[in-house]
Structure prediction request, 434 residues.
Amino acid sequence: MEIDNTQQTVLLVDDEENILRSLKRLLIEDDYNILTASSGQQGLELLDSNRVSLIISDQRMPEMTGSEFLARARENVPEAVRIMLTGYSDINATMEAINKGEVYKYITKPWNDEEMRLTVREAIERYFLTEENKRLARELKEWNVKLEQRVKEQTIDIEKRNKALLVFNYRLKRNFNSCLEAFASLIELRNTSFSNHSKNVAEVSIRIAKALSLGKKEVETIGAAAHLHDIGKIGISDSILQKESKGLTSEEKKEVEQHPVRGQAAVGQIEELQEAGELIRHHHEWYNGNGYPDHLSSDMIPLGARIIGVADAVDRLANPGQGGGRYDFKGAISIVKASRNTKYDPKIVDIAEKIVEELENSVYRDIGSEDDGFMPGDLVPGMILSRDVRSGTGVLILPSGSELTFEKIEHLKRLYKMDPSNNRIYVSKKDKNI
Prediction:
């Protein structure tokens, strides 16, 4: 832990100038900002105009004793750490200071210089940790409030769009699965590097879970967590999201590594998603314990999180992203297999390899060339979508794999007028000439 001593202010209070000079000379070597006061009253005045990390006060002073001064200092600046200098004969006063002034430590005179410096360092570290915890707690509270408001606003916006566009015939609040898909769509609007990533991860995760013969409820929980596994990234800035992981600074990496915790906090407010939140928190743990945020290993990592971790890696490595092209499944699974027993549960990797091979013609499909694109007026019933269809503002209209009917084509025509898009609509090559 690095502490900038130049930003840490130490207040020394003693009526003897030689004591103040000795302490100041000793502590200034560590680059602290040193303030001195020759009385308790002067010390209180300095506390009113300075942010002080540590107070060191003598006990025996005229007019106001050290215990009285430290008790008043605790009321004025309770966050400052307090140390008392005392003689061996002042044990009663020392106990009074500990009780009334909540003294961190007392040091008897004459002191040992190295012990004094060590005690001051420990006190400064205590102050820094306490203040840092307060700051983090405030930030987390503010972030949760902002996130809750953002999710609420986005949910309301999605509901309005769904009604206006006549795409969905049910409301998000009445259909849990639609809510999950809507949130997954929001996540991809924040990070468009990988198309259909949340949907693909959910598809692969659910199939792995079923291959392991898990119960229906557990499969549903894993599917929900997979859809929302990246929801914590909503609070990360675009500049960080757009960087390659190897190009992140240490602070940016720390910010990214908080997204599973933030994801759990976001969904944990919904009772039906609390178990899914636990899986979201741990989907970046490594099988050997070197992952984040809690460094769990092996079977200590929830099974659902291990499943999502493998599915997430496979899709990110295979996914051609917004640029289009064919999924590189063989390359992706080869990289994942190389990390079995380190990053990933080997049993799940083996199952994933078989599962994804089955999905190559659905989730991992050849999405065709630009010549396969149509506008709504050129579509005919029976065509099969080979890409998701989104509105001009990025809202998912129809997922890939949907078979077009007359009603769906009419919907597309209306939606392209309401929320204009220049994006063409892609269908499977075998269906484009129907």
Confidence is low (pLDDT under 50) at residues 164-174, 363-371.
